[in-house]
């Protein structure tokens, strides 16, 4: 499956929901980190758990952060955690949620965090 990643900056990309099977392609495309903004079970039983994707990321040599946020209900603490993750994760980073929109919004908010 082709990963549908959209560049926000040269070091930060967003994508819709990833599966554990997508992680090898993510690594092959040169990403160094995956950031998951989707809460577990948001999409029902068919949504892969963060822990399963994290295990695949670790096996592929990628850094992984799970920072679940509810669309439109971002907290200051979550924005600050996103800012910190973006400072610490090796780039380029691929962030995902259901559609990629939430991950992009969190990136924009994190740019103004102190």
Care to describe what's here?
The protein is of the alpha/beta class and 114 residues long. The chain has a single domain (6-110), classed as Protein tyrosine phosphatase superfamily (Protein-Tyrosine Phosphatase, Chain A). The protein has 4 helices and 5 strands; from the N terminus they run ββαβαβαβα. Helix 2 links the parallel strand 3 (33-36) and strand 4 (63-66). It is globular, with a radius of gyration of 13 Å. The N and C termini lie far apart (38 Å). The model has no long low-confidence stretch (mean pLDDT 95).
* Shape call: globular
CATH homologous superfamily title: Protein tyrosine phosphatase superfamily
> What is the domain total for the residues?
1
Number of E strands: 5
CATH topology: Protein-Tyrosine Phosphatase, Chain A
- Number of alpha- plus pi-helical segments: 4
Question: Share of helix among residues?
Answer: 25-40%
Question: Span between N and C termini?
Answer: 38 Å
Average pLDDT figure: 95
Q: Would you identify the regions where 5 or more consecutive residues have pLDDT less than 50?
A: none
Proper CATH architecture: Alpha-Beta Complex
The CATH class designation is Alpha Beta
Radius of gyration: 13 Å
- Provide the spatial order of strands within the biggest beta sheet: 1-2-5-3-4
Per DSSP, what share of the residues sits in E-state strands of 2 or more residues? 15-25%
Overall structural class, as computed from helix and strand content, comes to alpha/beta
